[in-house]
From TrEMBL:
Family indicated by similarity: Belongs to the DegT/DnrJ/EryC1 family. L-glutamine:2-deoxy-scyllo-inosose/scyllo-inosose aminotransferase subfamily.
Cofactor(s) the record lists: pyridoxal 5'-phosphate
CDD domains xrefs: AHBA_syn
Protein source organism: Streptomyces vinaceus
UniProt protein name: DegT/DnrJ/EryC1/StrS family aminotransferase
Gene Ontology MF term list: pyridoxal phosphate binding; transaminase activity
Superkingdom of origin: Bacteria
A biological-process GO annotation: polysaccharide biosynthetic process
InterPro entries according to UniProt: DegT/StrS_aminotransferase, PyrdxlP-dep_Trfase, PyrdxlP-dep_Trfase_major, PyrdxlP-dep_Trfase_small
SUPFAM superfamilies for this protein: PLP-dependent transferases (SSF53383)
Active site: 176 (proton acceptor)
Chain positions with N6-(pyridoxal phosphate)lysine modification: 176
Length: 371
């Protein structure tokens, strides 16, 4: 992944620096409004990362010790960690092989009377079937939180990922489709949650620093509850506003490159590429291929072959339940998760990728398969 950054982002960041206001301020507020509008949410709350966004979303649901939250193991470890931050217990569910996402069936398989929420991930920019998950969670009386870290620009039923979500968390890390360097966002339609989350990201203050400085009269703030320092800076937000304006072009380019990968790799035995699900369109934040038994080498050997050819690929999405941080945690059998994590790899895909660069990747994959 190479972020698509240029002179416009540099100028926006410089303008924020020269304005004299670099902390959370008017540019953050503008980015929140623009982002929420883009995904079809009433409120956006900018924060320092998607991990802190997930943490705040789970606080909004008032989850705590003794509560179970169902999460996919097939996800970056922050998904499960956020559950532990609030003292709750993450319960790992399996995923479907085609999308790498939770389904009502995989959730139901590990649901217990102690389950208090479900945390679904739009993995690698492949949208989860949130309509099916929301319907199932409504039947079970459970809130559904969406980890949309990779999801900006993906759609479900023609609408943005996150549209209609109870709470959704987003990432602007450099490996994501748009970036602010580091940063995240919570989106929601609930005004009460939005107000509380804005307080919590700023130490629990009832009046933000920007509001105090904008007032013509001295304001003594009060700290209504124990909060956090999860703020985004105006410099980051300035970059984010420019990046958001590029989103359509970025997603179109990524989908173009993904289609060319699929066409170029067609007929190579043992390679199964990620594709759009029936219920939506992905943004191809990650382009992964799953190796089957027909491919002549294993995933790790193929990564080494690519590296020797000067091509930077990565292992597939991690299985969190197999990481040392979750040793002894316990999990139901997760055969699909373990298969995807063991046998998949992520290929290079970035906005400025040339045909020659992509052809080099394809040549190695075809050559190692004997095709």
């Amino acid at each position: 992944m190479v972020p698509w950054l240029g002179e416009e982002e540099a100028q926006a960041a410089a303008a924020a620096v020269l304005s004299g206001w670099v902390a959370q301020g008017p540019r953050v507020a503008a980015f929140e409004r623009a982002f929420a509008e883009r995904v079809g949410a009433e409120h956006g709350i900018a924060v320092s990362s998607c991990t802190t966004a997930l943490h705040l979303a789970l606080i909004a649901l008032e989850l705590g010790p003794g509560d179970e939250v169902i999460v996919p193991s097939l996800s970056f470890i922050a998904t499960a960690n956020a559950v532990r931050y609030v003292g709750a217990h993450p319960v790992f569910a399996d995923v479907e092989e085609a999308t790498g996402n939770l389904t009502p069936e995989t959730v139901d398989a590990v649901r217990t009377p102690r389950t208090k929420a479900v945390l679904a991930v739009h993995q690698g920019g492949v949208p989860a079937d949130v309509h099916a998950l929301r319907a199932a969670c409504a039947d079970w009386g459970l809130p559904l939180v969406e980890d949309a870290a990779c999801g900006i620009g993906a759609t479900v039923g023609g609408k943005s990922v996150g549209h209609g979500a109870l709470l959704a968390a987003w990432s602007f890390h450099p490996r994501k489709v748009i970036t602010t360097g580091e940063g995240g966002m919570v989106t929601t339609d609930d005004a009460g949650w939005a107000e509380r989350l804005r307080r919590l990201r700023e130490h629990g203050m009832n009046v933000s620093a920007a509001q105090r400085h904008a007032s013509s009269k001295p304001i003594a703030e009060a700290y209504l509850e124990v909060g956090y320092n999860y703020r985004m800076t105006d410099i980051q937000a300035a970059v984010g506003l420019v990046q958001l304006g590029k989103l359509d072009a970025i997603v179109a380019r990524r989908r173009e490159l993904a289609a060319r990968y699929e066409q170029s790799l067609a007929g190579v035995p043992g390679l199964r590429p990620v594709r759009d699900p029936r219920h939506g369109e992905g943004n191809f934040q990650s382009y992964w291929v799953l190796l089957t038994e027909d491919y002549p080498v294993g995933r790790d050997e193929l990564l080494a072959v690519l590296a020797e050819a000067g091509i930077s690929a990565r292992r597939g999405i991690m299985a969190s339940h197999l990481e040392p941080a979750y040793a002894g945690h316990g999990a139901a059998p997760l055969p699909v998760t373990e298969r995807i994590s063991r046998d998949s790899l992520i290929l290079p895909l970035f906005h400025t990728m040339t045909r020659d660069q992509q052809d080099r990747v394809v040549a190695v994959l075809r050559g190692r398969a004997g095709g």
